[in-house]
Q: What sequence folds into this?
């Protein structure tokens, strides 16, 4: 007997010219792709009104969404496996593990240490934005506030400011010098 697999009807909800949420309706079906697609199309109108809406953390303009769609970069296709429809929740820890930690482990285990460190810094920058939100350019960068709050600067023998004085500095790479890691310097 063929295995049932998850299939989805996905909807985008735009308000005031911005993509603000996606709607997802999940089914488990077996059969050919053609049969599954026909089933989803037959349910499309009904599912539109009953789909579970998942708000986006940051709205996206209609133009940006359509540009991404043309390039095949829609988020909906990728995010399905992280949505828990029964609990009406989104599994952010699993997304972080899959998107960051699996890649960080792979790079480290294959001795690509600089790339590993750059991805780790990118992760910290991302989590800093999740924790503290966006900031105007003249305020303390969220990356530095995250380091102040959650990191022990004494272990690294560097201040958060030395690791990056602007939002883009966390993507630059620290260097190994005189037996220890030295923080990246500002590009300015």
A:
């Amino acid at each position: 007997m063929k295995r049932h697999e998850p299939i989805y009807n996905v909807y985008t909800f735009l308000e005031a010219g911005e993509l603000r949420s996606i709607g997802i309706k999940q089914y488990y079906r077996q059969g050919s792709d053609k049969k599954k697609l026909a089933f989803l199309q037959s349910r499309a109108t009904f599912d539109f009104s009953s789909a579970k809406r998942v708000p986006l953390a940051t709205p996206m303009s209609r133009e940006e969404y359509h540009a991404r769609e043309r390039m095949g970069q829609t988020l909906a296709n990728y995010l399905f496996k992280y949505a828990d429809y029964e609990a009406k929740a989104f599994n952010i820890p699993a997304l972080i593990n899959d998107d960051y930690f699996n890649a960080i482990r792979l790079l480290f285990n294959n001795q690509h240490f600089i790339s590993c460190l750059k991805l780790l810094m990118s992760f910290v920058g991302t989590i800093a934005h999740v924790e503290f939100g966006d900031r105007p350019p003249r305020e303390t960068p969220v990356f530095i506030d995250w380091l102040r709050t959650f990191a022990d600067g004494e272990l690294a023998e560097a201040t958060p400011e030395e690791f990056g004085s602007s939002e883009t500095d966390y993507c630059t790479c620290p260097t190994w010098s005189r037996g220890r890691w030295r923080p990246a310097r500002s590009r300015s």
Summary: The chain has a mean pLDDT of 76. DSSP finds eight helices and seven strands in the chain.
